[in-house]
Amino acid sequence: MEIQENIINKVAQSGLVTLDPAQFYAPGERVVYDIKDNLFHGLMLREKDFREFVKTHDWAQYQDKNVAVTCTADAIVPAWAYMLLANRLAPYARQVVFGDAEVLETVLFVKEVAALDVEQYRDQRVVIKGCGDVPVPVSAYVELTQRLTPVAKSLMFGEPCSTVPIYKRKD
C-alpha cells in the first residue's frame, strides 16, 4: 500500500517577508584606540606630549577602518584630546566614535538601518531574523522596530517557522 501525500510549505505561503539584520553590517575592520597609552604616569594627559604624539603618529594605518576612541584608565582626559584624535582620524577612518567596541557596533548598525527604505515593507508581515552569521547588537533590533512599526502590518522576531510576535496593526 502506497501513501502519497503532498507536502505543503506553509511558511512559503504565509506571505511573510524576512528581514535579516546582518545585511546592515557595515564594512571595514573595527579598531579601538585607547588613549590610556598616552597618559603621563597612567593618570593624566599632558598637552605638549600628546600634541607631539598626534603630530608624529602614522594615522594612515586607520585607512577605511571603523575606530572607537576611548580611555579605559581611570584618568583625567579633557574633551579636546578626543577631538584631536577624531580630527586626525577623520581623513582616514570610515567612522570614528567615542566609546568602546560595543558603542562602535551600535553606531555602525544604527547608521546603516537609518538608510533603509521602509516603504518596501508597507503593509507587509515582517519577520526580523534573530539568528545569523554576524553578531547583531540589540540596538539594531530596537532601531528596526522603531522604523518599521509605522509602516508594517505586523512585526515578528525569529524565523518564519517560529516567530515571536512584536506588533500587529489593528485595522
Automatic annotation (TrEMBL):
<dbReference type="Pfam" id="PF10652">
    <property type="entry name" value="DUF2480"/>
</dbReference>
<protein>
    <submittedName>
        <fullName>DUF2480 family protein</fullName>
    </submittedName>
</protein>
<dbReference type="InterPro" id="IPR018914">
    <property type="entry name" value="DUF2480"/>
</dbReference>
